[in-house]
Amino acid sequence: GVGLAVQMILFHSNIAYTVIIGWALFYLFMPLSTIPKVPWDTCHGWWNTRFCYEADDWASEAEFQLNRSISMNMSKSPVEEYWDNRVLQLTDGLENAGGMQWELVGFVALAWLLIYVVVWRGLQNSGKIIWVTAMFPYMMLIILFVRAISLPGAKDGIYFYLKPDFSRLADPITWLDGGSQVFYSYGLGFGTLFALGSYNKFHHNCYR
Predict the structure, then answer these.
(1) How far apart are CA 186 and CA 170, in angstroms?
(2) Per residue in 54-91, pLDDT tens?
(3) Domain presence at residue 106
(4) Count of CB atoms within 10 A of residue 26's CB?
(5) May I have one GO cellular component term (predicted)?
(6) How far is Cα 40 from Cα 54, in angstroms, rounded to an integer?
(7) Are residues 77 and 52 in contact, defined by beta-carbon separation less than 8 angstroms?
(8) Residue 41's closest CA among 88, 85, 81?
(9) Coil, helix or strand at residue 162
(10) Measured over all CA atoms, what is the biggest interatomic distance in the chain, rounded to whole angstroms?
(11) Distance of CA 63 to the CA centre of its chain
(12) What is the pTM of this model?
């Protein structure tokens, strides 16, 4: 019963996470046609609306009066519009489902293919691939970090990130969210640790 439940959890979670990998592949390959710039940096794409604004520009056309004392602005950044109108191509409601996003279908299929290539011969034969998949995210994070600290306002961003707000420690929601994230990170219900541990000898010193 427990083993079957674990498999069902993995089956459903893999479907969700593979879609996220498909989004990542979309962002990895689609900007190659616009090098050296990225397509979500400007408001000149076919997916942009008149509400789009770049950097510190203010889209006054997006502003309207709620009443005589309150003014609301509907401006959106090119990053938001690229995600909503280009990647997801969101419609105006559930009654208008829209068409199939074949680009995303292709990238999700590519993600499933990559997963199959990694696991089809078993974990014991995927050691070299794991070296790549384990190191690549850290290499990319280092590259992104170096790039980020070279941008204007990086000092303010680092200060905001490292400045603690000790008043949040008195909020029980903080501890609830932190505890749930710890258990989620361990993945106790996914069976991954059990599967990896099954390849060790029974008396293997895992604390070494």
Answers:
(1) 25
(2) 876 654 555 555 555 555 567 888 999 999 999 999 88
(3) yes
(4) 19
(5) plasma membrane
(6) 10
(7) yes
(8) 81
(9) helix
(10) 75
(11) 31
(12) 0.70
Which residues contact residue 97 at a Cβ distance below 8 angstroms, ignoring those fewer than 6 apart? 91
How many secondary structure helices (H) and strands (E) does the chain include?
7, 2
- Per the domain annotation, does 147 fall within a domain? no
How many independent structural domains does the chain possess? 1
Is residue 19 a contact partner of residue 108, using CB atoms and an 8 Å limit? yes
Q: What distance in Å separates the CA atoms of residue 98 and residue 85, rounded to the nearest whole number?
A: 12
- Residue 85 domain boundaries: 1-120
Tokens linked to 59: 């889209």
The annotation status of 185 as a binding-site residue, yes or no, is yes
Give the type of residue at 2. V
Residue type, 101: Q
Rg (CA), the chain: 23
Cα separation, 74 vs 66, whole angstroms: 12
Q: Can you list the positions of beta strands (E) in 66-199?
A: 71-73
Q: Give a yes or no: residue 197 inside a domain.
A: no
Residue 204 lies in a domain: no
pLDDT tens per residue across span 95-124: 888 888 899 999 999 999 988 887 777 666
